[in-house]
TrEMBL record:
Segments crossing the lipid bilayer: 82-98, 110-127
Broad class of the protein's primary localization: membrane
PANTHER family from the UniProt entry: BESTROPHIN, BESTROPHIN-3
Known function: Forms chloride channels.
InterPro entries with a match to the protein in the record: Bestrophin (IPR000615), Bestrophin-like (IPR021134)
Organism of this sequence: Alectura lathami (Australian brush turkey)
Membrane topology recorded in Swiss-Prot or TrEMBL: Multi-pass membrane protein
GN (gene name): Best3_0
Keywords: Cell membrane, Chloride, Chloride channel, Ion channel, Ion transport, Membrane, Transmembrane, Transmembrane helix, Transport
Name the UniProt record assigns to this protein: Bestrophin homolog
Coiled coil (UniProt feature): none
Places the protein is found: Cell membrane; Membrane
Length: 130
């Protein structure tokens, strides 16, 4: 009910790889300029006020389009990245082997490279990048 059948056909025939939210704004701008030239809008200040309000609404629509364009909020990826790296550094400190000079039973072998912690980190970091 907002468009005539002819306008709907033009809108549907318009090829665009993105959303076409901007087309009615162009139509509105052209009609407002035509109305000013024909004398339907008496003052240029009125036309400017109309166009400013239309541009404000158009910027809100483009902001909404921007939110639709980015699938995952950036905060989510930042929080997950921070969690993965914090977990890795906590594991590096928390999974240290006991000092072999103290003579603890069953802890004779001391590995210098935490192989399983590194494998776990590579798994999580790879999963994060995906």
């Amino acid at each position: 009910g907002f468009m005539t059948r002819h306008e709907r056909k033009i809108f549907d025939d318009l090829k665009s790889p993105h959303l076409k939210y901007w087309v009615p704004f162009v139509w509105f701008g052209n009609l407002a300029s035509k109305a000013r030239n024909e004398g339907r809008i008496q003052d240029s200040v009125d036309l400017q006020t109309l166009m400013n309000e239309m541009n404000k609404y158009r910027s809100w629509c483009s902001l909404l389009f921007g939110y639709d364009w980015v699938g995952i909020p950036l905060v989510y990826t930042q929080v997950v990245t921070l969690a993965v790296y914090t977990f890795f550094f906590a594991c590096l400190i928390g999974r240290q082997f006991l000092d072999t000079d103290q003579g603890y039973q069953g802890h004779d072998l001391d590995l210098y490279i935490p192989i399983f912690t590194l494998l776990q980190f590579f798994f999580y970091a790879g999963w994060l990048k995906v």
